[in-house]
Amino acid sequence: MAAAAFKVPTFEILSTAQMQELLNGTDSASTKKSIKFGFAKFEAFLGLKQIELGEITTDRLRLDDVLCTFYSSLRREDGSWYSKKTMQVIRYGVQRHFLDLHNFDIRDKATFSQSVRMFKAVLVKLKKEGKGSTKHKPAISSSDMEIIQNSSVLDCDTPAGLQNKVFVDFMTYFCNRGRENLRELKPDDFRLETDEDGLRYITKRDQLTKNNREDDDEVSNNGVMYEIPGSSKCPVESFMQFVSKLNKDCPFLWQKPKAKKPEDGDNWYCNAPVGKNTMGNKMKQISQKAGCSKLYTNHCLRATCITTLDRAGFESRDIQSVSGHHSEQSLRNYCNTSHERKKQMSSHLGSHLYEKRNITLPSATQSVPDPGPGPGPSRPNRAYSMHTTRQPLEIVVPDRDSDNVDVHVNSHQQLSFSLSQEKVHQDLSTTSNTFQIHDCVVNIYNN
């Protein structure tokens, strides 16, 4: 009986340098930049103090002492303190150097107890100096988003406007991070699909990102962009129109737009990609040209995506499937209390402190039945249902020559009021009284 053939496995033995190159590929470009920046600061400090790196690498006790002095001495060129975020980036660069090349961690409290304590003390100092908080990019406010959407900057009848419209849609629906992978995007990175209800939607091929460095479906950016049938703002229609107008000789998605669309209707874009810096500053240019209240960055669109979904009540795990975040804690950086909400809170506190006649009504969206006439003289009344937000609700009472006003608030914090038919459109006097009411029944008459 012939011996069974034995299949020899094939291997490619990599050199040490090749294996290191493979390991380096696990870090994003921004991470590599942070490591280089942080360790360069440490090398500059060692040069100033005339300390050899090799000497302290083998002497952990001395390295601990050197790190103490290093952390406490770090300053900007103008002599001011670095921010908390920058300090963390610098320490991370030093940490990764020793971890990658010498296999020990400078954050180990047992070995580097003094420098760990010193770093924490520096962060406390920064907090006292007002540099302890991290400034996260804000979400675009509803009013500014309306300004952007209604401006000519997003005019789909022009090459630049159509590109801007698709850019805003893409960054928001797919929760893209700043300028990450923008320059490398190609039309075939996207697919047009149709669901069981016949609705079209766009999906994007998974890419290496800052958070998604390996095959982990749970943290991949799996956002989808659905069509809005019948809407002139439909993101799918805009995207399909945009792709159809691209220059076929250029493989990239973001191509330089022509000054005006050609008369033949084809090739709205040049055979040249938009520059990396231009793409990185695109949202800043859009918000400036649209006339927004502030300049927004590309990352603000990512913050807008996360904040909007969070306030709509979507679960953190669902938002993570779009944003690519690994933890809920990371999402909380985007889902802080909005400025508008803080404004309402300040108004509430001001009413409590300085306007004793005003008591805030925590309002809700409710349809309230007619409470019926009060104990005063009977008059023909008209009931109104009120749509309110969570803002404090004010009731303005007309002058004495106004008609009868009935106000009713029940224990469930529902509110309704009645005005006579002929007084509905009456302008209220500037000297009218203002009341904020809750948890009671009130009938007001101006006789």
UniProtKB/TrEMBL annotation:
Residues 321-349, 361-384 are annotated as: Disordered. GO terms for biological process: DNA integration; DNA recombination. It comes from the Eukaryota. Transmembrane segments: none annotated. Residues 272-339 form the Tyr recombinase domain. This is Tyr recombinase domain-containing protein. Residues 321-337 have a biased composition (Polar residues). Pfam families: Phage_integrase. The lineage of its organism: Eukaryota, Metazoa, Echinodermata, Eleutherozoa, Echinozoa.
